[in-house]
Amino acid sequence: LSRDTTMSTEVALELSRSEEEEVLLKNIREQKERLWYDIQDLRRQIIDIDNELAALDEANDEEVRLAKERQRVLRTGRNKFNASPKEGVKYLQGQGLLGESSDEIAQWLFKGELLGKRAIGDYLGEGKDFNIEVLKKFINLHDFTSKSLVDALRAFLASFHLPGEAQKIDRIMELFAQKFVNCNLEGSLTNPDTTYVLAYSVIMLHTSLHNPSVRDKPTIEGFISMNRGIDNGKDLPPDMLTELYENVKREKFKVPGVEEGGGNLAETFFNPEKQGWLTKEGGNYRSKHKRWFILKENVLYYFKQPTDSELIGSIPLDHDLHVKEVDDPKAPAHCFEIVSESGVIKAWKKDRDGKVVKGNHDNYRLLASSDEERDEWIRCIESRLRHGSVYDSMTQRRRKITGIQGLDIPELT
Predict the structure, then answer these.
(1) Helix (H) or strand (E) holding 91
(2) Residue of 30, 104, 126, 165 marked active site
(3) 180-210 pLDDT, tens per residue?
(4) Alpha helices, DSSP H only, in 85-191?
(5) Three-state DSSP class for 234?
(6) Which of 7, 30, 126, 296 would staple 131 via disulfide (CB 3.0–4.6 Å)?
(7) Predicted TM-score (pTM) of this structure
(8) 165 catalytic, yes or no?
């Protein structure tokens, strides 16, 4: 080929390559543009996702904050309830965290989450119609089906701290007895009054068997004898009473409220209405002994020290007694006395050898630390002399179901 022809071919090839390159460059630029838009779109998506995550975080933070606030309010409400049940319930209802109905309150008390057992008992023991309605609903939440009376009592008395006033105990135990009978219609105990008396006997038995200060422990025979005729004048099966006795003997009741100042079952069942130091004058007022006194129901107990479990003595507050300020200018300050108009007071004490002996006084003279303390003791003792005790309720029910008038509660022997 000629030189001119060769040059023409090379120019054509160069022009041809330039067009291909242009096309390629164009494609690259278009792809780059598409990628740029894709990247921008991804950036917008990332921003949107970040905003959504931030919103979720804010929502979660708010939920956490609200949850923490709710727990704080609940904690405040529980603390208020444990200090003053009525105020605690009112506070939680005002915060919308507790319903107004007796069913809702009964459910809340039955669950008892971080609630003081003593506070639950105080609320349930109130005599107002609404509180009594809550008490009924609370007891109905228990299931005593196929349980022995002892096991039912264990479960029941572990769910709250039984208040110490006779009227409250009577009401609560009466409803317990009715619930137990309703849960065991095919059982041996079909009479609520019989169940009430037997439940009380079980508690007395437990107190005697597991109290270290009681040296002569009750026997099975004594427990059976104590409950003669309580089933509408008939005796309960000895095998059943023996089983109850052995159950009580095997294991102590687990009493709630110890961490709140509660004690053993005796102190739970008969909650002290008054306790403190008094100086007891001896015969002819010649000797004086400082003792720790506890008023429970219709008995005034005294110990050497508040921490002692062994009694020094007791003074039953029978209805023929009265209490008064000592009207004697020669008497020590802050002095009061318990006096019998009919003879010797039925008291007992331990002598120097630790032997239990009967008292032989027709009056007991006691010295308080101040006039205010003396007047408070007089007021508390007078209230016990005026009102009946759980023992009175027990005796009345025994008379009703045995048909025997004048039958007192037998002693466990």
Answers:
(1) helix 85-94
(2) 165
(3) 999 999 988 999 999 998 998 898 888 778 8
(4) 85-94, 102-111, 117-125, 129-140, 149-157, 166-183
(5) strand
(6) 126
(7) 0.60
(8) yes
